[in-house]
Amino acid sequence: MTTDATLFWDEVHAARPSADPRPNARLEEIVSELPPGDALDLGCGNGGDARWLAGRGWTVTATDISAVAVDRLSGTRITAVRHDLRVSFPAGEFDLVTAHYLQTPFELDRTTVLRTAAHALRPGGRLLVVDHGSSAPWSWNQDPDARFRSPAQIAADLALDPAGWTVERADSPTRIATGPNGQTAEVVDHVLLIRRAA
């Protein structure tokens, strides 16, 4: 494991309170109507998504590079495991794999990670990828020249066989987000939803 990336994310999570976090808005919007099954939460962070899924009957494997994040996350129907996705990927097959804001200042071959996630789906399962499409005022990435790949570009990068996987959604909606100190701003989410053929 690269120490710098591990230390960075350990420090990020150690600085955050361990209070019960909210789930991501796009997860609630998209997954609410799906029947529960086995879910994999990639880059689980504070655990809001994993807890929300478990509360709706999903059996969740939650993974993060940060031992701080993983050690804080426990609960009924949740197994938290530490993985550096550059070198390892959780075992198993899933009905849902989520990757919310799996973006990092460190090197990560996201295309390979997301392609592996697509192949970890059971027939009929879905891969939900939600990325930043803009920088919030509180984001760690304030590079004014930052470019955010569109959902269609990410789907094309995955090069999944259309006979086996279908893009169900690829769009860039806006929403009002709330930052860590209560400030609000309009942000863009890049949403990609892919379904494996039944």
From TrEMBL:
Entry keywords, A to Z: Methyltransferase, Transferase
GO molecular function, one term: methyltransferase activity
Keyword Mitochondrion: no
Highest taxon listed in the record's lineage: Bacteria
Any GO BP annotation: methylation
Listed Pfam families: Methyltransf_23
Descriptive protein name: Methyltransferase family protein
Organism of this sequence: Amycolatopsis echigonensis
Phylogenetic lineage: Bacteria, Bacillati, Actinomycetota, Actinomycetes, Pseudonocardiales
